[in-house]
Write a structure and sequence with these properties.
The protein is an alpha+beta fold. It has a domain of 102 residues: Ribosomal protein L17 (50s Ribosomal Protein L17, Chain: A, Alpha-Beta Complex), CATH 3.90.1030. Helix content is 48%, strand content 12%. The protein has a 3-stranded antiparallel beta sheet. A hairpin with a 6-residue loop joins β2 and β3. α2 packs across α4. The termini are far apart.
């Protein structure tokens, strides 16, 4: 029985699983939002939130602990300089999972995992173009013979020989 077994195995050995989760956490820190399967998102969420908690401590020991897990110095710098200060007033729950539905190929449940305090890009609304004037029906009759003349003027396409790799 699997009583009190917290680890989600994801069908991988321990080393592969740790590397994959570290890479997912690094991608989340770098891009602020990633699309993945629901199982992987649920597995990486506690790790990402622990990394933010380490980032809020701002100590050398916390930085080295984060580096031991994430294994990328530039990502740890982003974590401590950008993400942790944004989450300074929040006590937990730094990430959210947004379900997207099933992947078409294998029906895996897909989702976005993103930071709750992610900076929102402001989109400026472009003015909608005005509707064009409706053409008169007489103009359509004049265009029809011109289209027929163009079709007659164009030579028929000849099939090309296929290239073969040798």
């Amino acid at each position: 029985m699997r009583h009190q077994k917290k680890t989600v195995k994801l069908g991988r050995k321990e080393g592969h699983r740790k590397s994959m989760l570290a890479n997912l956490a690094c991608s989340l820190i770098e891009h602020s939002r990633i699309q993945t399967t629901l199982a992987k998102a649920k597995a990486v969420k506690p790790m990402a939130e622990k990394m933010v908690t380490l980032g809020k401590k701002k100590t050398l020991h916390a930085r080295r602990t984060a580096l031991a897990v994430l294994r990328q110095a530039n990502i740890v710098k982003i974590l401590f300089d950008d993400i942790a200060p944004r989450a300074a007033d929040r006590k937990g729950g730094y990430t959210r999972i947004v379900k997207l539905g099933q992947r078409q190929s294998d029906a895996s449940e897909m989702c976005f995992i993103e930071w709750v305090d992610a900076p929102v890009a402001v989109e400026t609304a472009l003015p909608e173009p005005k509707a064009k004037a409706v053409k008169k029906p007489a103009a359509k009759k004049a265009e029809a013979p011109a289209a027929e003349a163009e079709a007659e003027a164009k030579p028929a396409k000849t099939p090309r020989a296929k290239k073969t790799d040798e």
